[in-house]
Amino acid sequence: MTYLLNLPSDVLAKLCLPLLSLTDIVHLDTAVTNHLLRAQLFEVFRFLSLKHTRKGLDSDQMAWLCRRSIALESITFAKSSYGGELTTTFDMLQNSTRSLHVKHIDCSNCNESPSKAHYSIISKHCSRVETLNLFRCSGLSKPVVTQLANSCPFLHSVNLSNTRATDKTIITFVQNCSTLVTLNLRACEEISDDTLVMLSRSCPSLRNLDLNSTCRQVTDTGVISLAKNCPSLTYLDLCDCRFLTDNAVLMLAQQCHMLSNLKLSGCKLITDVALMPLAKNCPSLTNLEFRHCRELTDATLTALSRCCPRLTALDFSSCDRITDIGLVPIMKNCPLLTSLDLSYCREVTDATVISLAQNCPSLAMVNLSFCHHISAVSVTALANCPLLETLLHVGCEKIPKNVAETIFSLGFCPRDTI
What we know:
Shape: globular
Oligomer: single chain
Strand content: 5-15%
Number of helices: 18
Distance between the termini: 50 Å
Strand order of the largest sheet: 1-2-3-4-5-6-7-8-9-10-11-12-13-14
């Protein structure tokens, strides 16, 4: 132990801190009473990394951090943070001389939502915060979001998913937060095109937007405005925005050439008319989710195989018009594929899976459930994929019971073979 403490502080930190939880560190600080050793420990504590707070901070740990004047960049509140403990922790944050150093705040684990007073503490004492996660938090009134936006000029990533935020609340927020790059509005069901239009006008640097299940009032009008005013979009989740048509996707194809991750599952009105231009104009696409897009055909798949060689994850579940004709070229021209979902694609045969196994060495997940033409031949081919972890084949009548387990027991074995 003495030898270790003679090492330079940065070396000692690299050796010891990765092995310790924040609780261990607090106990160590309490146990060491020697004045010289405590000075050495304090030097080590300067190298505390963000990972030590990711599981959440309770009030005791927060108190210790304040006493030691350690300037953490990230604060994640513990799952056990009930009203009283949450208030105690926020009070410590308010009184800490180092709160200005906080750049990341995550309240998503709290059993009770922060109060108006708590939000006020973030605004007044954490003005340099850059990312704010308020998943499932309530109490986001118009005055609260106005104060947050006005007091935190460096905010670039905000998660408001499942907060029941309304158009008025979000519009007020984005009008005062032009630096936003990432915004999560998943399951905010009261959001309409009005929010998207104001968001697109106020936040031209927006790159990542999640609107999954924000479906009841979002139409082409809002998405077209986004496409026109936010050309740097790279991630866009529009799953279950069921009123979207080809017009919205065509505008994305024309304006947002940097798109890499696009999710359109449940957008049943989208057809090849929009998806083919999307493939041709967005060569950086890597992740596509088209689950239940039943108008999708081999024409779009052929365009993807020719224009998007960086594809890594594809979800074509329940796209029952696609066949080997469109899929095999993708397998041949997109060797980086790691995940493929073809469940309920009833026209797919062993030819697609054999080509997948031969051309995609990084494959980790395949879902072939209810592909009635798939046989044990496909399972045998996939047994040669060294990184395969999950193979799902529920309802594949041509694969005899337990055959997958038998085949994989002779070679590589995924963690899941169902």
